Amino acid sequence: MAEFEDGKDKSALRTIGEVSEALGIKPHVLRYWEQQFSLLKPLKRSGGRRYYRPEDVALVEDIDRLVNEEGYTLKGAEAVLRGSGREDLDRRQAERRAGEFRTAEEIATDENGAPGADALSKDTKTASKDSKKSKANPADMTETLARLKSIRKRLAKAIEA
Known about the structure:
By secondary structure, this protein is mainly alpha-helical. The protein is built from seven helices and three strands, in the order E-H-H-E-E-H-H-H-H-H. A hairpin with a 5-residue loop joins strand 2 and strand 3. It is elongated and about 60 Å long. The N and C termini lie far apart (43 Å). The relative contact order is 0.10.
């Protein structure tokens, strides 16, 4: 949660400058995110001055985490925010709930310790199939992205061997 050191109440409205300073996100990025995320709608008063409510600040923090820490695109982050109803946005928790992702150690390996071609091929086909499903249901994008990252790690490991 953002730490504001201005003595205001936690439920107070914040200007774009205050939010920018507290979260380390430049004001022009916040304005751009307002255009890209229909969920982000700070109050605008006369003269166009923006005032962020505590829930707006929390949403900005979620967007920042999804985009800058977890590597989502802006569209992907919005799909996660919409698909989850903003509940439980951490995709690692979603992966644990799904329980169907295997680690590299769980993948069948050849005698050199690299993932077997059959295992990689099967997972790639499954991820491709999941990708097609994700267009219909944005909530599935989290699972598809996690599966693709798992494949990427296994491919990198196979190339190193």
